[in-house]
Amino acid sequence: MTDLPALAAASATGQPVLPVYILDTTWPGQRTLGGASRWWLHQSLENLSASWHELGGKLVLRSGDPREILPKLAQLTGASGVYCSRSFEPWSGQLENRLHNALEKQGVEFKRYSGALLHDPDQLRTKAGQPYKVYTPFWRALSQQPIRKSVSVPADLTAASVKAESEDLDAWQLLPTRPDWAGGLRDHWVVGESSASQKLDTFLNDDGFAYAKDRDRPDLPATSRLSPHLRFGEISPAMCWHAAGFAAAQRPEAETDLEVFRKELAWRDFSYHLLHHWPELPNSAFRENFDAFPWQQDSAALKAWQEGQTGYPIVDAGMRELWHTGWMHNRVRMIVASFLTKHLLQPWQMGEAWFWDCLVDADLASNSASWQWVAGSGADAAPYFRIFNPVIQGQKFDPKGDYVRRWVPEIAALPDRFLHAPWTCPDLERHSSGIMLGETYPEPMIDHAMARQRALESYEKVKVAR
Questions:
Q1: Helices 255-277 and 364-375 meet at what angle, rounded to 10?
Q2: What pLDDT digit, counting tens, does each position of 17-54 carry?
Q3: 3-state DSSP call for residue 361?
Q4: Closest residue by Cα to residue 25 from 165, 171, 172
Q5: Are 5 and 151 contacting, i.e. CB atoms less than 8 angstroms apart?
Q6: Which pLDDT value is given to residue 298?
Q7: Which residues, other chains included, contact 441 with Cβ-Cβ below 8 Å and sequence gap of 6+?
Q8: What is the C-alpha to C-alpha distance for residues 172 and 393, in angstroms, rounded to an integer?
Q9: Does the first or last residue of the chain, that is N or C, have fewer Cβ atoms within 10 Å of its Cβ?
Q10: How many other C-beta atoms are found inside a 10 Å radius of the C-beta of residue 458?
């Protein structure tokens, strides 16, 4: 409820406020939430409902078509206005325009406010008046603009006492039943606004704060892990931005680290900037020449990648972390995405869909923009010849093997020098550790040198197709 400009504006009218959440099940073109996101949404709504209960009100839950539900609720309650945060998914603009028209006919104001991003996507343009396609100039433009100030929960906020029926959250069946695969999520996450605020404070005030140096290390607790809280509005990017600025003023030695953190917030905005101006981003290659890329769809290869059975420990560790916790370290996300698209030549859409279902922070803009960036088909994409060597990546960013040993325990007994490439360990030493390649742990499903060469040849075909 903190830093919601729409809530602050509604409260400033002096009228009581009735909070409503609609699970939209009807609007064409929208993407249904994945399993992990549904789990998070359930917990988040429970948390939000408890906050309103403390104010003496209640959160009204409805499912269906917002174009029908909101006008009826406004009429039932005698509401003079509907206030919301603006959304930027491809279908949101048309839906919000329809709501505006429907409510206006009833004499009810419909007001949208910023809040989910640092800047609305239409606010930043190149000197030529065009949307940005490259992150670095986007960052320069964003960093030179003032970021709106955060707003507190209104001190005079009054919860409406009107009676409006609410649906039962459990009846929405957002949680898994049989099998209950969410045990790892429950073990690793505390959902809600209080948790998000505490996490931000702990992250920025850690005595060992070295974000710029350590953020690529999955074996270290060096990242904020705020992404799902941002995704579900439990904390705002503006709050994170200003908290980082305050921390920099208190600790000038951490200024570089905090700027890198702010750049990650800006990358999130950049992803929404791309999605807003190129709404086909989640489905189609940003660079049209990639329509000719010779993807080699292979269901068995995709399944091995999804299950963390590729034979490359850093890749398998990441995929298992994802399945168990609903989250994956950002460096490892790049490694596994590169492996799927460049080693295995599987379409980036396959990986994006798996992440969408498994991530608690599954975000349409960030997910699609980042997958296209790694695949080479996106805006400001990674160079096509940048093909991560998973062995070197593991050795560089998990040097002692703590991350791999946690998620791939069947090879934990290997010495550090062999951990990221078990097949290089002498047979006698490997067998004495109880590791039988092809039995207790898979052999590499593809040779890196061969895969790299094949990928480069495939990208050459795309260059010819331009």
A1: 100
A2: 999 999 998 877 788 999 999 999 999 999 999 999 99
A3: coil
A4: 172
A5: yes
A6: 96
A7: 311, 408, 410, 411, 422, 435
A8: 42
A9: C
A10: 16
Q: What integer pLDDT is reported at residue 386 of this predicted model?
A: 86
How many other CB atoms are there within 10 angstroms of residue 438's CB atom?
8
Claim: this prediction has a pTM higher than 0.85: yes
In 3D, which of 342, 280, 291 has the Cα closest to residue 466?
291
Q: How far apart, in whole angstroms, are the C-alpha atoms of residue 96 and residue 25?
A: 15
- What does the pLDDT read at residue 73? 96
pLDDT band for position 423 (cuts 50, 70, 90) = very high
Q: Map tokens 């060096």 to a residue.
A: 222
Residue 56, by phi and psi: left (phi above 0), alpha (psi -120 to 50) or beta? left
| DSSP tally for the chain: helices H, then strands E | 21, 4
Separation between Cα atoms, residue 189 and residue 40, nearest integer Å: 9
Question: Would you say 286 and 372 are in contact if contact means Cβ atoms under 8 Å apart?
Answer: yes
Residues across the chain: 466
> Which tens digit of pLDDT belongs to each residue from 77-133?
999 999 999 999 999 999 999 999 999 999 999 999 999 999 999 999 999 999 999
For 365-379, how does the pLDDT look when each residue is reduced to its tens digit (9 = 90+)? 999 999 999 999 999
- Residue 395 host element (H or E): helix 390-397
Q: How many CB atoms lie within 10 A of CB 99?
A: 20
Cβ(146)–Cβ(118) below 8 Å: no
Place of tokens 């940048």: 386
Average pLDDT of the chain is 95
Contact 380, 132 (CB under 8 A): no
Kind and range of the H or E run holding 224 = none
Please calculate the CA angle 387-368-65 and round it to the nearest 5 degrees: 165
Beta bridge partners of 62: 22
- State in Å, rounded, how far the first CA of the chain is from the last one: 49
Domains located in the chain, CATH noted: 5-113 (3.40.50.620), 119-149+193-277 (1.25.40.80), 288-464 (1.10.579.10)
The pair of structure tokens assigned to 453 is 């060469």
Q: Enter the tokens of residue 275.
A: 């999605």
| Cβ atoms within 10 Å of 143's Cβ, excluding its own | 13
Q: Is the dihedral of CA 209, 212, 214, 216 positive or negative?
A: positive
